[in-house]
Prior knowledge:
By secondary structure, this protein is α/β, with parallel strands linked by helices.
Amino acid sequence: xxxxxxxxxxxxxxxxxxxxxxxxxxxxxxxxxxxxxxxxxxxxxxxxxxxxxxxxxxxxxxxxxxxxxxxxxxxxxxxxxxxxxxxxxxxxxxxxxxxxxxxxxxxxxxxxxxxxxxxxxxxxxxxxxxxxxxxxxxxxxxxxxxxxxxxxxxxxxxxxxxxxxxxxxxxxxxxxxxxxxxxxxxxxxxxxxxxxxxxxxxxxxxxxxx
Length: 210
């Protein structure tokens, strides 16, 4: 097993255990309705037939909201098969969703997407090599003029999440970290309230390929 494969296996075990132990609706990142994500996706101004991938989507309710809004080409990728199983059971097997149980940093995209959505994956990449691999996968998966929507902990956000250290970003730092070749479409700050009532500030950006 290579070092990358070993790291991916550790991440899978960590997040499988987290969902098994806490459950989909009690994890700190749970949202009944992902308003910030939906608002920024709407700003992309795309047809509902456009291809959208939610990386690190886990058991998020975003896929439910997108389907209800008429999106017909949705992919959810997550390292945790447990999380994806929860979402798949909730959504139903007959819906137009592709479920990919893969570690994002070792994933090999087989197509390009018009929208790349990431809520709370990028801030777990605390090593420069991890961020470089993320940008490489993003570059292979995104259509040339596609939209990138990323939400991370803000500069005044928590130092750890689910027992792991996290990075923090303001708008400028997040745009820079995602690499060049993008135009800023929109940005916002979100005050996410966890199921336990803790406020977690997020920085969001929506970028479009130049």
